[in-house]
Amino acid sequence: MFSQVFVALGANLGDPAATVRAAIEALRGIAGTRFRAASSLYRTAPVGLKHQPDFINAVAMLEADDAVLPAPTFLASLFAIEAAFGRERSVKNAPRTLDLDLLLYGDQTLDLPGLTLPHPRMTERAFVLAPLTEIAPDLKIPGHGRAADLLSAVADQPVERLP
Which residues on neighbouring strands pair with residue 117, listed in sequence order? Predict the structure, then answer.
């Protein structure tokens, strides 16, 4: 069985737009998945450590074969892609070459060491909700409701859709 999977992408070091585009292409290569869509790119202010460059963000939608690629294994694939792009995990919310967050894996709710689904802060972040609702406006986030209905709660967080 295949589950619909959503991944948030973000970068703010080097050429972040090129990095996010290349990372979207890397997602296409994950074995046991079918790539379905990617949002536009969005420019957003940093969260947490404020004195750093703006981020470029996007969201991708894939389908993953549950039997071949369960959620923890899928997450390991994301970490491998981050590492290939030079990601270091030294300081929380620090500038980064690439950040890939597993937002949703089907309608699963998980609370494992290193993996919580749905992603615990996704509904609080315009840089996730804006690109997510671009590609899946009617998506229901377990425990939170329809993604598009959550945007108004983060309207104070500016996001700029890039051409």
Answer: 110
Catalytic residue selected from 87, 89, 111, 149: 87
What is the domain extent for residue 58? Answer: 2-161
d(CA 111, CA 119): 10
Does residue 128 surpass a pLDDT of 90? Answer: yes
Active site residue 99: yes
To the query of whether residue 43 is one of the catalytic residues in this protein, the response is no
Q: pTM of the predicted model, to two decimals?
A: 0.94
Query: Does the annotation mark 28 as catalytic?
Result: no
Q: Which of 65, 66, 101, 149 is catalytic?
A: 101
Beta-bridged to residue 130, according to DSSP, are none
Active site residue 156: no
Number of domains in the chain: 1
CATH at residue 74:
3.30.70.560
